[in-house]
Amino acid sequence: MGLYDQFLRLADERQQFQSSGLNPFGTCIDEIYSATTGRIGTHPVILAGTNNYLGLTFDQDAIAAACQALTHEGTGTTGSRMANGSYGAHLALETELAAFFDRPSAIVFSTGYVANLGIISALANSKTNVLLDADCHASIYDACVLGGAKVIRFRHNDASDLERRMLRLGDAAKEALIIVEGIYSMLGDVAPLKEIVEIKRRLGGFLLVDEAHSFGVMGETGRGLAQALDVEEDVDIVLGTFSKSLASIGGFAVGNDPAMEVLRYASRPYIFTASPSPSAIASVRSSLRTIASHPELRESLWRNANRLYAGLAALGFAVGPRVSPVIPVMIGSKEQGTAFWRALIEQGVYVNLVLPPAAPSGVTLVRCSVSAAHTDEQIDAVIQAFAVLRDRQSPELMANPAELTD
Ligand code: PMP
């Protein structure tokens, strides 16, 4: 048996995608022109499938700060946070993140994936019950495997299912970790945090919220869903990434207990991987200041989200359950979804294709991500591209809107 024989079916599927045109998985964006425009092959495209929620990838202050750090501190740290990879700027960013969240402790990691691995695998060992929303990100599942935790999944966004499972744990519920996300990246829906907090108050446990998609996007000052719902005091740890609203790369955890600092000595994903480069840290520090001082970016983002959501819904497409910067559109079968995704690129619009099982409930989605940097004309051009394709498609391609509301 060859080393890669176990992947034969996957290799076959990959081959089929590649030979039938643009490959939706690992699409090469050949050129990037701005936060919202680029080129794929011969097609100039509006980028409507990135996580660049506040459009800060080309922010001039962030670029200047990154260039300065590159010149003065070099291209990389060449070491982990624990060894030689903690520079003054990493510590300064931690202080700034803690202040931004008004919490005593913050830790910077190399990516959002690593932040989840680092915090959860250290906290959740083989004696720990972790109650996970079923739609949680792969990094949260992987973190539980790394720590050897006992995973109990509850139905997506179903607080009564969480409660039932907590009750079954009896006294052990008091020590359990509950993990949910702010905005979920597939459907754009949000966790029922108020109900979850109420259960936690009654039955105990600790609450971790991954605000990867909601940081910078929700809440009065952009701290995320917990801030928007006024339940921050009940959230023990907020996890986040620098790769979405903060437009760079890296991840973080902020906690309401200074004792979280000890995880720097107990977390293998903190100890055994290189720290983010000085330029990444510098751009994040700049963008964090921008988020704090420019709330109008969030307003533009939501105005654009409303415009796109309303436009696609008016065309009769089955869109996600609520207006959100993540707007999934359900498109028939896997084959129809792939053809639709390719045709959108020909129409000058790049979005993400999500096939089952990555998409919940076995549906095929094209997922749009809105940015504050999109202009009205760009949003309208995206809607127009969907309109052209709708008119070309057979009626059965227009999925039933009810199917996207779970
Ligand atoms: N958590 C969630 C909910 C995510 O959606 C993602 C990335 N899509 C991550 C964590 C990982 O973040 P990063 O890309 O910084 O590794």
Sum up the overall morphology in one term: globular
Strand order in the largest sheet: 4-10-9-8-7-5-6
Number of domains: 2
Radius of gyration: 21 Å
CATH class of the largest domain: Alpha Beta
Report the structural category: alpha/beta
Strand portion: 15-25%
The overall average pLDDT, rounded, is 94
Helix content: 25-40%
For the secondary structure, the number of strands is: 15
User: Would you tell me which CATH topology of the largest domain applies?
Assistant: Aspartate Aminotransferase, domain 2
Secondary-structure arrangement, i.e. CATH architecture of the largest domain: 3-Layer(aba) Sandwich
SSE sequence, one letter per element? HEEEHHEHEHEHEHEHEEHHHEEHEEEH
The CATH superfamily name of the largest domain is Type I PLP-dependent aspartate aminotransferase-like (Major domain)
Distance between the termini: 43 Å
Number of helices: 13
Bound molecules: 4'-deoxy-4'-aminopyridoxal-5'-phosphate
